[in-house]
Amino acid sequence: MNDTSYFDLVKDYLNTASQVNRQGDDDGTRYHLAQAAYAAGEIENDKTRRSALSIIAKQAVNVEYPELSQQLARKLIHLDRKLNSTSWIITDILTYGSSLHLTGQHLEAAGVYRQAFDLAQEIKAWQKAAAASSNYAMAIAMQGELEEAQNWLERSLEYLEKEPDADTAFRTRTTLIQLMYMRGQKPEECFATARQLI
Fold first, then answer.
1. Which one of 25, 135, 150, 154 is CB 3.0 to 4.6 Å from 20, fit for a cystine?
2. What's the alpha-carbon Rg for the chain, to the nearest Å?
3. Which among 77, 87, 112 has a CA at the least distance from the CA of 97?
4. Burial class of residue 106 in the structure, from the number of CB atoms within 10 Å of its CB (0-12 exposed, 13-18 middle, 19+ buried)
5. CA dist 9 to 12, 24, 42, 57, 152, Å?
6. Side-chain half-sphere of 184: how many Cα atoms within 13 Å?
7. CB neighbour list of residue 126: distance below 8 Å, 6 or more residues apart
8. CA 2 – CA 14 distance, rounded (Å)
């Protein structure tokens, strides 16, 4: 089989994984994601293989299969360095951090997110800086650092003004409202943030 055929096979496995996941079949989801990862590993072209593995790793995070997403993210970061792409490194570091977060390794996830944040700032990738900042905030909030987490979320919103991204903005504002409520801030302040979200 050639690379195109393997990539098509990856997409087929991912589609099936999504279908069985919607049916609540965790074992089936994991099986098809693992098969997708195996097929992606057969792709010879580095950039094409990287693209396939990155899609699989993100889907593994979304369906809470951290063992696979961690494994793939480590491979991807190594491949990204070989391809000399800082932007891809940031993307895959964020995936790795998310997989750590899923397994309750919040301290480790925070360190990974800070690494992604620093790299994003270096290359002025503001949307990635915002995503890293928001994720870092969630990781430190899980450790009880609520005020610092709120500061990081507000910083994330500043980056999103430079480079908007609807998904990151939604997640950031949602988390910000939760933190404001947990910290006992005035209801009108929480409502003001909620209106911005809407």
1. 25
2. 18
3. 112
4. middle
5. 5, 23, 11, 16, 40
6. 0
7. 120, 159, 160, 162, 163
8. 19
